[in-house]
Amino acid sequence: MVHKQGRSLPESTSEGVNTKDEEISPVSPVPSDIEVAQSTTMLPIADVATSLGIAREHLDLYGNFKAKVNIHAYADAPRRGKLVLVTAMSPTPAGEGKTTTSVGLADGLRAIGKKAVLALREPSLGPVFGMKGGAAGGGYAQVVPMEDINLHFTGDFHAIGAANNLLAALIDNHIQQGNILGIDPKTITWKRVVDMNDRQLRHIVCGLGGKMQGVPREEGFDITVASEVMAIFCLATSLNDLKERLGRIVVASTYEGEVVRAADLHAHGAMAALLKEAIKPNLVQTLEHTPAFVHGGPFANIAHGCNSVIATDMALKLGEYAVTEAGFGADLGGEKFCDITARSANLTPAACVVVVTVRALKMHGGAAKSQLREENLKALADGLPNALRHVRTMRDIFGIPTVVAINAFPTDSAAELELVESKFREIGVKAVLSQVWAHGGEGGRLLAEEVVRLCEDQNGVGSFRFAYELKASVEEKLTAIVGKIYGGAGVELTAPARRQLREIEARGFADLPICMAKTQYSFSDDPSALGAPEDFTVTVRNLKVSAGAGFIVALTGEIMTMPGLPKTPAAERIDVSEEGVITGLF
Questions:
Q1: Max CA pair span of the chain
Q2: Is 166 in a helix, a strand, or coil?
């Protein structure tokens, strides 16, 4: 394999921002991600499983290069691996390359003789066909088969969407067939979902056409990754746990104000039946044949943003190092991994990697995207407080030993790289140059060595802890997130949110953790407030209980749970040949 000087790829799911990177990609031609992936010889997935110690009888093969692993096979095995969490600075249209870094780190750990396993999220079709394109890593740090992973894969998202929409159908059918429970249609909070960016479905009216066509009411769709079923799927520890969580979903209220759950509609058994195969973790491989579980995929700006607990647990049982990724920045996926996922599943990260790029830092410092090729030490210095705050969050708030990965670009100058390294040295954190896009595992050796050092250092920075305690009030938890993690002054609840808060408290849900739905581009709820803003107030406009997932969703700013397509969708560049070869997925 020939490794070429490369670039890093963006991560974004918000509407209307084109993160494709034509104008600042290297001048010299480089192969596209899909060309790199298609030129790689993969190992039979059964051989990859054997390298992990997984017996053939525990595999359900999906062709030669994908498999699902029986969830019961290692249920009683102890966790023996060290958990490494990868997160990042606040994303920009310039891209940060968090998934690429995660893949390259796992390959780097294998390169230095460690038995590493990846545990990543599955891509959503919405961003794949929207503005992001593929989401399986990039360059020479990818999981493969990338076309399958980015498209239908093993059908998990379809199963999740079907389970979600079965519940929606049962709600409306119950009302149509006499409404024995007395459901007030105006209180229904359960939406249908589709795994596509389709703004046309955000607000609709359904049940039109007469008495036999259902009860007319206002409705709307979410994207599948925003469904509570997705969150439950990712947080469940077994099939029984999944079914019990599905039964706890709150879908509406009665005319008397009583909570209506999925179990009241006898929906949870059938929903779990739709998910019984999907809940098995998907096993694939990297370009360098490192085993990778790719399973579950909520967005971190509108959900908790972490892959399935079952997959992470399996990686910890089968490997010496389990590398997992939390979506977007440490303020979103990183915080939610610690306060929601780790708390729920009793996970303790041994080390954290915060991914930064020189060009993203320059954008946070005021540089235009068209100027990112140019050395700009002032913009870089002005943007560095963003990354510094993320690093302090993971190290000082959550107590996780932390390293910074500088995702290398050919336009980074020596002076810019030195400035980044020096600023992190000042706060006692090592910044390591990562060249995994261009050189795969070899380009991740230095990062892997620092991660191992942090994991093995018994004199690390404190011990893992949470940003708030569950016994705190909802407002105290919201204030802790805004103050400790975002650096803001406080939180303000709108009148509707306050009414919802009173309901939450009256119904006994106040002791749940918080899942903030917030723009990924800023610490604040204003996506244009780049860098490290201070003294801002975050406005919470809606509070919703996800009782099955086990958290309270707080919607802030203008965040939406159904994205739209950009002016030029990535779908327009995707094609397939007569021979079945796909092009255009990056």
A1: 72
A2: helix
**DSSP H stretches of helix in 333-413:** 335-336, 343-345, 358-364, 377-392
- The span from the CA of 366 to the CA of 389, in Å, is 17
- Given a contact cutoff of 8 angstroms between Cβ atoms, the answer to whether 407 and 102 are in contact is no
User: What's the distance, CA 405 to chain centroid?
Assistant: 19
User: pLDDT tens digit string along 493-542?
Assistant: 999 999 999 999 999 999 999 999 999 999 999 999 999 999 999 999 99
Average pLDDT, the chain: 92
CA–CA dist 549, 87 (Å, integer): 22
Residues near 549 by beta carbon (within 8 Å), at least 6 away in sequence: 228, 231, 232, 235, 245, 304, 515
Residue 462: pLDDT band (50, 70, 90) is low
Range from 148-152, 154-158, 223-227, 580-584 carrying the lowest mean pLDDT = 580-584
Intra-chain end-to-end CA distance of the chain, in Å: 19
Q: From the CA atom positions of the chain, what is the Rg in Å?
A: 23
Cβ contacts of 5 within 8 Å, gap of 6 or more: 26, 28, 30, 410, 438
Active site residues: 98, 100, 121, 132, 300, 328, 409, 437
